[in-house]
Specification:
The chain is an alpha/beta fold and 317 residues long. The protein has a single domain (2-310), classed as Alpha-Beta Barrel (TIM Barrel). It is built from twelve helices and nine strands. Strand 5, helix 6 and strand 6 (174-179) form a beta-alpha-beta unit. It is globular. Bound molecules: iron/sulfur cluster. Belongs to the organic radical-activating enzymes family.
Length: 317
């Protein structure tokens, strides 16, 4: 989902390997590194495992395709692209970010286009995911972290998200959902009230621009944010600044107005400068990449965009 953004700390976790806090890749992250802006944004996921193979050493979860489909429908399993342990990204503290496969949007600036596609994933069961979460519980507790459901569009697999969220609530594990909100109408109030945080991507404030950059409509995102606001669910708004695409002053003003209408629950706004780190993947998945000539915004332009949000009384980073 915030596949549109990514980050430079790469704590990639192959599907058959666990990253731990003692891994050099995790342990070597100092505060300074964590606080750099790009450190929050630059992960480009590896291409997903296109098979339905189990984790190394585990049995295949389902013998028959019909069992698998039934488990997906019931939320006992999900199509997962990959997962990784990250710090200061995708929510507070150290988090297990679970990247679900499939997305209804087609953002021109998506840096993980393989997560758009449902078949770049592996079936994971509720037991497999909660086992991994249990393993990291002490890290979550020490860092104030938890789990983040991201993608792709995690809300394509709502029954699974609902089951894992309910389990996390029992276990005292913080939950965050990273989403465009496009499928928000399908989420029940009970789930939205259970979530500790929603990272809501507002990709444009102007309807026409939104369609140009995502191929979809803006209205579902606004309606979803309105529901979160009414329910009191905390939001971090995220906006990707793409020169020539989303950086028109009036567009930024509109995104700020949208964020401000949820000011009772918006804890922060993250203005994420566009980068080119995902460009190779577009050719790997044989999709047209339209931003090959686009430069990242200048630091001054990014700061100026943040000021627009601050002018609405919002915390912007
Ligand atoms: S296409 Fe989907 S996964 Fe990629 S940035 Fe857009 S919402 Fe996120």
């Amino acid at each position: 989902m915030t596949s549109s953004t990514g980050r430079s700390i790469k704590a990639e976790e192959p599907l058959d390997r666990e990253a731990t806090a003692t891994d050099p890749a995790v342990a070597s992250r100092g505060d300074g590194e964590r606080k750099t802006e790009t450190a929050k944004r630059q992960v480009v996921k590896p291409l997903g495992d296109v098979t339905l193979l189990p984790l190394r050493g585990e049995l295949a979860p389902f013998g028959a395709r019909s069992d698998e489909l039934e488990a997906l429908r019931a939320g006992r399993a999900a199509q997962v692209h990959s997962w990784e342990l990250v710090t200061a990204v995708d929510g507070p503290g150290t988090r297990l970010s679970i990247f679900f496969s499939g997305c209804p949007l087609r953002c021109v600036f998506c840096h993980n286009p393989d997560t758009m596609l449902a078949h770049y994933g592996t079936i994971r069961t509720f037991e497999q995911v909660t086992k991994r979460l249990r393993r990291y519980r002490s890290i979550f507790a020490a860092s104030g972290g938890g789990v983040t459901f991201t993608g792709g569009e995690a809300m394509q697999q709502l029954p699974f998200i609902a089951n894992v969220t309910a389990w996390c609530k029992e276990q005292g594990i913080h939950t965050a959902l990273d989403t465009s909100g496009y499928l928000g109408a399908h989420a029940r109030d009970e789930l939205l009230a259970d979530l500790d945080l929603v990272l809501l991507d507002v990709k444009s404030g102007d309807e026409e621009t939104y369609r140009r950059v995502t191929s979809r409509e803006l209205a579902p995102t606004i309606a979803f944010g309105d529901r979160l606001s009414a329910l009191g669910t905390k939001i971090w708004v995220r906006f990707v600044l793409v020169p020539g695409w989303t950086d028109a002053p009036e567009n930024i003003e509109r995104v700020a107005d949208i964020a401000a209408r949820w000011s009772n629950v918006v804890e922060r706004v993250e203005v994420l400068p566009f980068h080119q780190m995902g460009r190779e993947k577009w050719s790997q998945v044989r999709m047209e990449y339209r931003l090959g000539d686009v430069e990242p915004p200048t630091p001054e332009a990014t700061q100026a965009a943040r000021e627009v949000f601050r002018s609405r009384g919002l915390q912007a980073y």
